[in-house]
């Protein structure tokens, strides 16, 4: 790891210390404990599901697999890390990396699950309900007041240079996976083999992915969060949609690419190209102070133009938007905030923590904020052929070219997704 990144990380931790001190002072607390969380066993079993550490904990330590541990933050005091590291011959004991950030913390190695030492008026955040009664009673602290958690969420909305560097590297690693997935598709692999090619090239095991990779061939490309991997390749190859990421020091890439296969009608390939151009147009619209809901609406208008230009809709773009046609072809939002969680915190709030819900007609939008420098967002326009959403339109007297829609149904759909930083004057596309 480069010295530059290590230095940026030390600055990031110093920034967090200052920001947390302000939040604690404002909310009248002397100390704050963050619980890492821990994995639960499956019912009646001794195996656990995959796990990710609480985002506010990872914000400090950059490790997304720490369990049963605590971080204590207090003004004018070094962060105290109570790291659960029992003697254990079944597992490799938890060990911190030999990296400079570790020396910015006081590390207490705990051989048993223990409560941290808190001073003055204390507060805890994290999945406190999951800790044992002994520990929760020993804490003597307020639990996660909304205003405090929202203020800490708000901090996560604005990425430090260290966090941006991590997101950039997560993107670089994920793109290697996407290139391998495309090669596997060209070589006629099925969904599972495309997934395995992606994991190998992006250098990660499946339990570490930031979200379950979506690898959809043909009509599976039209299932927004398609969750399976068919073992065998289909006989005909119309399309492939890959929505797959990578974590780097806790930070998530979230990238989607769609490819036309040899059996797709020519218009599908043209639509894939049109969605790439739409993604670029939306990325280039990013500047500080732009309203993300406005960008989402701009996407719908441009989708209307695409439907008209490719003969899917024989009316005007405006009619396609007003009659809800573009929403049937793209039922999700333009994107979301991205960071330690793929759908990162505070997307549906104003800066002061009051709710900023999605507009009624766009309920799936996960980000309603005015964009500001330091925010990282996804831009992910889509165009899908989803029978369940198109069915209600078939009974209406709308100028939809159903013959063409029916030809495209086996292709499932298209999504193109990049990760973008809002800079002081414009944007930086983090997806190479
Ligand atoms: N991968 C989930 C999303 O794009 O939001
Ligand atoms: Mn995605
Ligand atoms: Mn996304």
Give the topology.
Blueprint: H1 3-27, E1 31-35, H2 55-61, E2 70-73, E3 80-84, E4 106-110, E5 122-125, H3 133-139, E6 142-143, H4 146-157, H5 161-186, H6 191-201, E7 214-217, E8 239-248, E9 251-260, H7 266-284, H8 292-309, H9 317-322, H10 325-329, E10 376-379, E11 382-384, H11 387-394, H12 402-408, E12 413-415, E13 418-422, E14 427-429
Parallel strand pairs: 1-5, 3-4, 5-6
Antiparallel strand pairs: 1-2, 2-3, 7-8, 8-9, 10-13, 11-12, 13-14
Helix pairs in contact: 1-4, 1-5, 5-6, 7-8
The structure holds glycine (GLY) and manganese (II) ion (2 copies).
GO molecular function: proline dipeptidase activity
Binding site for Mn(2+) 2: 243, 254, 417
Domain Xaa-Pro dipeptidase N-terminal: 11-152
């Amino acid at each position: 790891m480069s010295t530059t990144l290590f230095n940026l990380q030390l600055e990031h931790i110093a920034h967090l210390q200052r920001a947390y001190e302000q939040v604690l002072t404002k909310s009248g607390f002397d100390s704050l404990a963050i619980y890492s969380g821990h994995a639960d066993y499956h019912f009646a079993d001794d195996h656990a599901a995959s796990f990710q550490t609480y985002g506010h904990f990872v914000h400090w330590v950059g490790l997304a697999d720490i369990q049963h541990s605590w971080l204590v933050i207090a003004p004018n005091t070094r962060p105290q890390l109570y790291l659960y590291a029992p003697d254990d011959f079944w597992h490799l004991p938890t060990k911190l990396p030999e990296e400079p950030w570790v020396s910015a913390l006081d590390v207490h190695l705990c051989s048993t699950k223990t409560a941290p030492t808190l001073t003055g008026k204390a507060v805890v955040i994290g999945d406190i309900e999951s800790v044992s009664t002994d520990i929760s009673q020993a804490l003597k602290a307020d639990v996660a007041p909304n205003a405090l958690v929202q203020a800490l969420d708000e901090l996560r909305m604005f990425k430090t240079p260290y966090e941006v560097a991590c997101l950039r590297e997560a993107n670089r690693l994920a793109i290697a996976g996407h290139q391998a997935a495309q090669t596997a598709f060209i070589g006629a692999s099925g969904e599972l083999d495309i997934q395995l090619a992606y994991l190998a090239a992006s250098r990660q095991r499946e339990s570490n992915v930031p979200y379950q990779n979506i690898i959809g061939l043909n009509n599976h490309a039209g299932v927004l969060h398609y969750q399976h991997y068919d073992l065998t390749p289909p006989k005909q190859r119309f399309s492939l949609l890959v929505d797959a990421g990578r974590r780097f020091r806790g930070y998530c890439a979230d990238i989607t690419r769609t490819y036309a296969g040899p059996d797709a009608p020519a218009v599908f390939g043209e639509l894939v190209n049109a969605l790439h151009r739409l993604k670029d147009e939306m990325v280039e619209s990013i500047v500080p102070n732009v309203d993300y809901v406005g960008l989402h609406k701009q996407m719908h208008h441009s989708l209307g133009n695409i439907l008209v230009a490719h003969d899917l809709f024989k009316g005007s773009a405006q009619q396609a938007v007003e009659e809800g046609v573009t929403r049937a072809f793209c039922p999700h939002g333009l994107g979301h905030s991205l960071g330690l969680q793929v759908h990162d915190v505070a997307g549906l709030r104003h800066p002061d923590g009051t709710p900023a819900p999605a507009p009624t007609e766009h309920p799936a939008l996960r980000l309603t904020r005015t964009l500001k420098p330091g925010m990282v967002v996804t831009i992910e326009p889509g165009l899908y052929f989803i029978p369940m959403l198109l069915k209600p339109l078939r009974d209406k007297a709308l100028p939809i070219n159903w013959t063409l829609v029916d030809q495209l149904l086996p292709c499932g759909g298209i999504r193109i997704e990049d990760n973008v930083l809002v800079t002081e004057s414009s944007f930086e596309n983090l997806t190479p």
